[in-house]
Amino acid sequence: MVGKFVQMHVLNLDFSASLTSFREDCFACMPNLKSLSLCETRIANLWTTSAALSKLPSLVELRFQNCLLCSDTGSSPVSSWNKVNEDMDSKSHRDIGLYIELPSLNGEAIPYLPSGIEYEDMNDYDANHDVRSTAEDSSDDSEFDFSGHRQDFSLMELLPDLPRGWNQLVDQQNEISFGTLDMQDEDQFSPGSSNSRHPSYIASKKYISRHPSPICYEKHYRDYMIASLPNLKVLDNLHIQKVDRETANDSFRRHFEYLPYNMNNKESVVSILQKREVRASPTRTHTSKKKFSYASRKSQHFYSRSLSAAKVGSSTWPTLRPLSVLSSISRDERRSFRPRQFEYHPSESSLMAFGTLDGEVVVVNHESEKIVSYIPSLGAMNSVLGLCWLKKYPSKLIAGSDNGSLRLYDVQSTPTISRGIYHTPVTFDEFDQLTSVHVNSIDELFLASGYSRHVALYDISSGRRLQVFADMHREHINVIKFSNHSPSLFATSSFDRDVKLWDLRQKPNRPCYTASSSRGNVMVCFSPDDHYLLVSAIDNEVKQLLAVDGRLHLDFAIASTGSSQNYTRSYYMNGRDYVISGSCDEHVVRICCARTGRRLRDVSLEGKGSGTSMFVQSLRGDPFRDFNLSILAAYIRPCSSSEIVKVNLLASSDHDKVHSNTRQPHIINGLGG
To answer: For the U2A'/phosphoprotein 32 family A C-terminal domain, which residue ranges apply (predicted)?
Structure first.
């Protein structure tokens, strides 16, 4: 919007299906805007949305859904949008509703809505239908039939990027009872009140939520918005009282990180640098050089984290940039690649290798975006699903494809031009339907797994397959990982829902231990120090286990979508400080603290047109740069190639999108990590 809208007090953007996100300064021209309605848009990101709305100093009423109070005589709005609500219901838009039963005190309506519809919590409530059952029993994406409504398009067509679980939520026409909620009026929570925890009477009131935007289905949505917008008085037609704000602030502290490393106050980079310089000045009052040295080391670590927190805090819209490696492979050919797997180099901070759907292996300088080495498929490989660099020999890497081909390449001996002369790579016995390869910490052995219940062990120096360990799981083993420091320990993750730790010194006939998930496991990886195992199961089930015995250390409690095809992958970032997680049915990467599980940020992958969201096929944290990561993003249309997107959380790009052209998400399979 261009211009000044000083006199604008009310803005209704309901049913804006093309509205996916906001610029940081998009509301700067509306200083007196008091009421904003955003029902049935495609707004989904809590962080960018609240940051944009915080620029509205006069905003007191906000809607992302239309919550109405139900009675025997009909539905009536709780807030002041009476006329707008009537207009919404009289329009030709389809009437979507979830009936919600909430408590009230002494017959009075309680102005409170639970924080989103959390799929995994549905079993705790009295619902007539299991919301997730349809998606788990079938992989088909069936659409709800809206032929009986007044409109010839569905919510899924309006909002093509909804998680598959929304299909089931939209299909629910029954009331969902949320039981009794311990809510009281403000004066009942006075410090001297003896009944501050136990109201004398609780009666149920029912609300129906109509036309919700995707943001409403985020976990703790209501608490987050109330805590982030302190001047807000009405959210989704429900008034915000003092007890609601206190509850929301407490919920925010428990479930979200305001700044990285549990920093509570935003500071400028200049201020932090000044403090660091003052601390490091030659004027010392320490009586002991040893004490000063210890304090100096400690302070450097503290200031490094403080700088990161300051930069992340000022970069709500992080920089997203596609890795552009469109280059001349030969003198008469210019082409792009279709990446399917990628890995950062373990010791060269500028290098990255990726394998393609066409069987090529490409090593690039991801800083300059120049190709360092190009290895064609030579007709021997299909999609490259497994890549692993050697550590002691940093110019070598293992590549495995889905047709079972396994090769060791030395990238220093391969040219950048496809018509050059190649040194013969080391080839290994094939492993059929391969999905994963991994080298041990001393570059002597590597393992391969795939669409079978077996694991193969190879000797790198001789090129021989040493052994095949049969029937290690009941179903196929998607990902296998050696530990980072012990050359004999490795972990396997299988779609049989088990993760197992093995020791080659014990000739793995039986695992050291077995840990189970509630769904099939997509992948597993060790933390950089081998203290933890990070396990990712289908549909956002992400847990951190103690590597020593497999006990649960942390459940990240990411909301599921209800899709049995939503393959989730998670890795560490900033050493073992943070976890990044993404799924192939969603266009968002979630960043959580690995120590507390609290959510720091969501990064959304979006295009500029309707239906252009990109979906997460794989991802990695940059091992050399804090709060940097790369995402392998893909599209639905086969003609649209997947690509690697670099994300820098320390630098702001405001509203920059990854693409300006209209594309569709690419179909993703569940193979590999």
So the answer is: 218-236
